[in-house]
Write a structure and sequence with these properties.
The complex is a heterodimer of chains A (399) and B (552). By secondary structure, chain A is an alpha/beta fold. Chain A is built from 11 helices and 17 strands. Chain A folds into 2 domains: 173 residues, Rossmann fold, CATH 3.40.50; 172 residues, Dimethylsulfoxide Reductase, domain 2. Chain B is built from 20 helices and 24 strands. The chains are: A alpha/beta (399), B alpha/beta (552).
């Protein structure tokens, strides 16, 4: 590991998923780590030069080409947006210059949540409340750990909690398929309740849950293969809880009108809160999606929407964190800006490798539960320019 | 380089100047004494007959942080209403609504266009302080600052329940101001937000939080004492228990006595000045509240005036906002419990002049304004956006300065409300001098900023120039010129130069050993590292625009 004035590998914040564990020792992956984090912090660095149509060029040439593509486009879009706050702010300014809309690579799943927020609102909590208060945790259609590997380790099976006995928590998995429920077993061996169902049946099962929480009677004895009696038991657990938390991950709801399933969950919480205490919690998250969602909202007064990139005639694709995630397929010229490890089936019109926040430069990210914003440290030596530096260069050519 | 503003008709209550013709010299962003004759004046602007005041200061406006951003996210339809030119009510103009959730850019632009050069976010949750500063950092033109919320956080309540000595509390409060880059301390529904997490639904001043067995009164005593002891100018900013409840004025009166004479600021007091008289069991207690403010010199208040139209209420008071969610309009709302630190509730709301309660709220706010005698101890706010967007201030100023305009508005209100209100019996009209005191000198003094809110030597050259008009709404909506730190940034209501303000903070000293117990608490119960909670000056200035000024 290189050492220099700004490089700090002692305790870092990991941007590999939405819960931003900030106890990572980059020099010693044997503790406080997960596969996603190790893979992120051990990715190689290639100090490659920018390219135009696959041919190496200088940064200035690449930026000039990118600017000329954007200037001649009628309807450009800034997409991907896997970056941190400073990178997004800079990209936002450039997008404003060419009146381009902005869309994060996770926008399809984020938009499922946003639709619920804009239709009904919701009642939610954050990780520290879960850690210290939750005595009943209901994971709906998700095992959480596929997205946030250390969720249970850090927030559920902690040694101490302010208001509850962590070991005594009731963990329930309702719905979903092929879930890894092993993390729901307490360190002392208390098993979770697991009631699986097909992902497609989640609308039905969440509607049944909502109905029962509202005190209505269901005539059926089973719903999507789950006994109504078992659902009724869950409802009683939720109502008796000192603090129940209902968790979902929008990315796991990969079916049409998933917002209605999320609304079943959030409105269940609203009903529970009339008499007892419960809160919802949307987990998952990656690639700075929460950061982009929030910063776009305060800069423009509107949450970013989901767009169809094929409707645009120039695409700026920004991807700093996840080089393995593919570029969208589109005919329009692509300006790829991001991680030096990005792979291309076809060379893009322009490629500009930039510094990855938390590796090559410092940064800032929002945690998936909102409210909590954490600094990222530079943890290795790099000469790559930051996304903001590249965007600022481009701005000068766009005016 | 020296700029001379010549023949200005100056209203500068900090120096007792009431409309006196004065020359103002500006150098390096500050107001300076008249230079000797040998020094060259580079630019002279003739302000004959122009009304000149210091830049206005909004001491309570929700401009940054999670709540207002949730409102933006939840209410995309509000952006459409920006285009509406018509008012939403018989009373009030278009600027009284339509601007409840502006972007950070629009926020800064609208403030400076009205001659405001600073605004303070009154509800910075410590754990969310970084977001608040990021948003305020993206707010151009004006200076910013925040008040950190304490009194519902589990760390503080544990200290109080365990009977920690006052020094320990003081150190924690001072540490919080430093760590969160704020200038004051606020308490919202003392103990109530926390009690809501234990399923309590209301909390009176002497009622106990059932887990910690501490009362709001004890919280107020402890925090007001701490703020006083550590030498922070800004008195404890108090959002009382029982917000919005009919009959809550008694809680408010009792709260004034809770600090044993130590200064406290009661915020958006209009929402806490309700009686329960009359057929509808909702009445004005403005007279009782104003009398108590007049008699209790340790108390200051801002009003939180409501005006009519569509807005959104954003509050840390999740306990009371959870009740208000039933009357949300449009029918959606967000409630949050946040990180064992606090909570929030975001509830869209439409105030209607035909509605009895809303009409009474409007009248109650004005009654408080007009019945508090000392303009240095009452402040002009709408609790943006809770009572109305801040863009309604010129309209509100006219209501205060123009009795016939006020009475005409009153005549259009709900008839039952007219019958229940004494507003028309009040003849007072605010003077320009009094407006300058409440929106400039008083606000700066309250927050503890010696170089703001006045036009004396050494002041930051934040200056607003108006053409005097009979229509005070028109006058205050569009100043001729606004200078920010000596630069001409607004001409005839339009921004001519974009600048970025600074962040005002207080950094009282504290015993560094306070972090030992905090670190232990963070390691056991938090989900982040203690070091990541703290925001450094360097981080504040990292974008190259913002900077931190400490007033300690």
């Amino acid at each position: 590991m290189h050492k220099s004035k700004n490089i700090d590998t002692s305790i870092a914040t990991c941007p590999a998923c939405g819960i931003l564990c900030d106890d990572i020792n980059v020099s010693d992956p044997s503790v406080n780590n997960c596969a996603k984090s190790i893979s992120f912090f051990t990715q190689p660095i290639t100090e490659i030069s920018p390219t135009i149509a696959g041919k190496a060029v200088s940064l200035d040439e690449a930026v000039a080409k990118a600017a000329s593509i954007l200037k001649s486009a009628q309807a450009p879009i800034f997409a991907g947006l896997s970056t941190d706050l400073a990178g997004f702010r800079a990209a936002f300014n450039s997008a404003q210059q060419v009146k381009a809309p902005m869309m994060h690579m996770n926008s399809e799943s984020t938009w499922r949540n946003t639709k619920v927020l804009q239709s009904k609102g919701w009642q939610t909590t954050t990780l520290m409340e879960v850690k210290n208060r939750a005595d009943v945790i209901l994971c709906i259609g998700t095992d959480v750990v596929s997205h946030n590997p250390r969720f249970f380790e850090r927030n559920v099976w902690n040694k101490e909690a302010l208001f509850t006995d962590p070991q005594a928590r009731d963990i329930i998995y309702l719905g979903g398929e092929n879930l890894d429920t092993s993390h729901g077993v307490s360190p002392k061996g208390k098993e979770p309740t697991v009631l699986p169902c097909a992902t497609e049946a989640l609308p039905e099962i969440t509607a049944a849950l909502r109905t029962l929480i509202q005190g209505k009677v269901l005539n059926a004895t089973t719903i999507a293969g789950i006994a109504v009696k078992a659902l009724q038991t869950i409802v009683e657990q939720l109502k008796q809880a000192s603090y129940a938390v209902l968790i979902w991950v929008a990315k796991d709801f990969n079916f049409a009108h998933a917002e209605l399933t999320i609304e079943n969950i959030t409105e269940s919480v609203v009903t529970l809160n009339a008499d007892s205490r419960a809160m919802g919690l949307a987990l998952g998250g990656s690639d700075g999606d929460t950061t982009v969602n929030y910063a776009h909202t305060w800069l423009s007064a509107l949450a970013p929407k989901d767009h169809d990139v094929s409707q645009h005639d120039a695409i700026v694709w920004i991807n700093s964190f996840s080089p393995d995630k593919p570029l969208p397929t589109a005919d329009a010229p692509m300006i790829a800006i991001g991680n030096s490890q990005m792979q291309f089936a076809m060379p893009p019109a322009v490629f500009i490798p930039v510094a990855t926040p938390a590796l090559d430069c410092a940064g800032t990210l929002f945690r998936v539960d909102s409210s909590i914003v954490l600094p990222l440290k530079q943890t290795r030596k790099s000469t790559l320019p930051t996304l903001s530096a590249v965007m600022n260069k481009m701005d000068a050519l766009l005016t | 380089m020296i700029t001379l503003l010549e023949n200005a008709k100056v209203y500068d209550p900090a120096h007792g100047i009431d409309g006196v013709k004065t020359d103002i010299y500006i150098r390096n962003g500050h107001i300076v004494a008249k230079p000797s004759k040998t020094i060259k004046i580079h630019k002279t602007i003739d302000l004959t007959d122009k009304v000149v005041m210091a830049g206005a200061i909004d001491m309570h406006s929700h401009i940054g942080g999670g709540k207002v951003n949730i409102a933006r996210m939840m209410l995309p339809e509000y952006q459409e209403t920006l285009k509406y030119a018509d008012p939403e009510a018989h009373v009030c103009g278009p600027q009284c609504a339509h601007n409840a959730t502006p972007s950070t850019t629009t926020t800064g632009m609208h403030y400076i266009e009205m001659g405001y050069t600073a605004a303070f976010e009154p509800a910075v949750l410590g754990i969310n302080a970084r977001q608040a500063h990021l948003e305020m950092g993206d707010t151009p033109m004006i200076d910013k600052g925040g008040y950190a919320m304490l009194g519902n956080d589990d760390y503080f309540l544990r200290l109080l329940a365990n009977k920690a000595d006052q020094k320990t509390i003081n150190d924690y409060v001072a540490w919080t101001l430093n760590a969160t880059q704020t200038i004051g301390i606020k308490v919202v529904n003392p103990g109530g937000i926390n009690a809501f997490k234990f399923n309590q639904r209301r909390l009176d001043l002497d009622e106990y939080n059932k887990y910690y067995q501490v009362s709001p009164r004890q919280i107020l005593q402890s925090l007001s004492r701490a703020v006083h002891d550590i030498g922070v100018a800004k008195p404890l900013h108090v959002h009382c228990n029982n917000l919005g409840v009919a009959g809550n004025f008694q809680t408010t009166l009792d709260t004034m006595g809770a600090s044993d004479g130590i200064p406290m600021h009661l915020t958006h007091i209009q929402f806490h000045s309700y009686g329960a008289e009359g057929d509808k069991k909702f009445s004005s207690a403005a007279a009782e509240i104003a009398e108590a403010i007049n008699n209790n010199k340790h108390i200051t208040a801002d009003v939180g005036q409501i005006l009519f139209g569509q807005t959104v209420t954003v509050s840390g008071d999740s306990m009371m906002q959870h009740l208000n969610a039933k009357i949300a309009n449009p029918k959606k709302s967000v409630m949050m419990d946040i990180e064992c630190d606090g909570g929030c509730g975001v509830v869209p709301f439409k105030y209607r002049d035909e509605n009895y309660v809303n009409a009474m709220q409007w009248a109650i706010g004005l009654e408080v304004f007009l019945s508090v005698e000392d303009p240095w101890r009452v402040f002009l706010t709408t609790d943006h956006p809770n009572g109305a967007p801040f863009t309604s201030y010129p309209h509100l100023i006219r209501l205060l300065m123009d009795k016939s305009f006020r009475d005409e508005s009153f005549d259009k209100l709900n008839l039952d409300a007219q019958a229940m209100s004494n507003l028309k019996a009040i003849n007072r009209e605010y003077s320009l001098y009094e407006i300058a005191a409440m929106t400039r000198a008083g606000a700066a003094k309250l927050i503890g900023m010696n170089d703001q809110g006045h036009l004396g030597e050494g002041a930051a050259a934040n200056i607003t120039v108006y053409t005097e008009q009979a229509d005070k709404e028109a006058m205050f909506a569009k100043p001729d010129y606004v200078f920010k730190d000596g630069e001409l940034v607004v001409k005839y209501g339009e921004v001519v130069k974009v600048v970025w303000g600074k962040t005002h903070t207080a950094k009282p000293a504290y015993d560094k050993s306070v972090e030992k117990d905090l670190k232990d608490y963070f390691d056991k119960y938090h989900t982040t590292q203690l070091d990541n909670y703290k925001i450094s000056d360097d981080e504040m200035a990292a974008d190259g625009r913002n900077s931190v000024t400490s007033h300690t």
